[in-house]
Design goal:
Blueprint (H helix, E strand, L loop, with lengths): L3 E6 L4 H12 L4 E8 L7 E4 L2 E4 L1 E2 L10 E4 L3 H13 L3 E4 L28 E3 L3 H16 L2 E10 L7 H14 L24 E3 L2 E2 H14 L5 E8 L6 E9 L5 H10 L3 E3 L11 H4 L5 E8 L6 E8 L3 H16 L1
Parallel strand pairs: 1-2, 1-6, 2-5, 6-7, 7-8, 9-12, 14-15
Antiparallel strand pairs: 3-4, 9-13, 10-11, 13-16, 15-16
Length: 333
């Protein structure tokens, strides 16, 4: 595999740091790495493969000579520099939501729709973390029979809000133990000992932007334009790894036994489903790795073509950084 010059836009953030780690882990053929960040970080260094690399300031000329740029910055930064990245001749694999629903931009989960990479025009989008975890879990079922509807409830870890999320959770716990108060800065309310049933702003008929991503992105990735999704996204006091409760209805009935068989063989999945022995996916078990665990598979008692399941996956890795690097690997094949 040829060596390529790689840039990371937003290299100093939680996802950018994870991207560097995963490039090392997966032995990605990096000829040179260029971390790119704001003027505040420019000139300082990060460590990659045991060597110091200097952070470059994000500018229109910062992408010259690069082959692939991994995006780990916010929407406005991605939108600002995408034209410069493409003009420099690099392919931009972006983790923000800026281009996900653009019909000219592929939205890719490598285990599901790797072929969509072929029609990119310089930009490829990485899906939302909860979308990735859920769709990896149910993709084998969708291949067996098209999914018509999904009702999902997500239990999203504090790290989904960035590195400051878990810090705020811990600070609140420590403050409570001391009998002190802590003013939330990252979340709308105290997250310690609490759950917050809002992630994102209101977007459509009382649904938040985070909740609508499951439907809008899911349709595009699974190539199921008629699929309907009703989703509730909840922030929970967990450090890392998102969990999702999924009720889905397929066009043709899939038995529980067949569903277990399909998921056990599905790429990126691990069947963890033995209720009698208290074996099921949990955030602690799925953190720090890239497989989506799936369990609690059972018939839906309200729909003869329905199935219930529970899945967990590390949203910083598979839900963001690892999926982005996997897309970059597809570009080299």
């Amino acid at each position: 595999m040829k060596q390529v010059n790689v840039g990371i836009l937003g290299a100093t953030g939680a996802v950018g740091q994870e991207m560097m780690k995963i490039l090392e882990e997966r032995n990605f053929p990096v000829a040179s790495l260029r971390p790119i960040a704001s003027a505040r970080s420019a000139g300082s260094t990060l460590t990659f493969r045991g060597e110091k690399v200097t952070i470059a300031e994000a500018s229109d000329n910062a992408f010259d000579g690069l082959d692939i740029v991994l995006g780990a910055a916010e929407n406005d930064i991605a939108e600002r520099f995408a034209p410069s990245i493409v003009k420099a001749g690099a392919t931009f694999v972006d983790n923000s939501s800026a281009f996900r629903l653009d019909p000219k931009v592929p939205l890719v989960i490598p285990e599901i729709n790797p072929e969509d990479v072929k029609w990119h025009n310089g930009i490829i989008s990485n899906p939302n973390c909860t979308t990735i975890v859920t769709l990896v879990a149910i993709n084998a079922l969708a291949k067996e029979s098209p999914i018509e509807t999904i009702i999902a409830s997500s239990y999203q870890a504090t790290s989904g809000a960035g590195a400051a999320g878990p810090k705020e959770l811990m600070a609140e716990v420590e403050a409570d133990l001391r009998g002190e108060t802590y003013e939330p800065k990252v979340f709308q309310y105290q997250i310690a000992y609490n759950v917050i049933p809002q992630i994102g702003g209101e977007q459509y008929m009382g649904y938040t932007s985070e909740e609508m991503k499951m439907q809008n992105e899911g349709r595009k990735i699974l190539h199921l334009p008629e699929m309907r999704v009703s989703c509730t996204c909840v922030r929970v006091p967990v450090v890392r790894s998102h969990s999702v409760s999924v009720v889905l209805r397929t066009k043709e009935k899939i038995s529980v036994e067949r569903a277990r068989e399909l998921i056990a063989k599905a790429p990126g999945c691990r069947l963890v489903d033995d209720l009698k022995n208290k074996v099921y996916p949990m955030p602690l078990d799925t953190s720090g790795q890239d497989i989506v665990f799936v369990g609690r598979i059972r018939d839906d008692l309200t729909d003869p073509r329905g199935l219930n399941l529970w899945c967990c996956g590390d949203q910083v890795r598979k839900g963001a950084a690892t999926n982005t690097v996997q897309i970059a690997e597809l570009l080299l094949q």
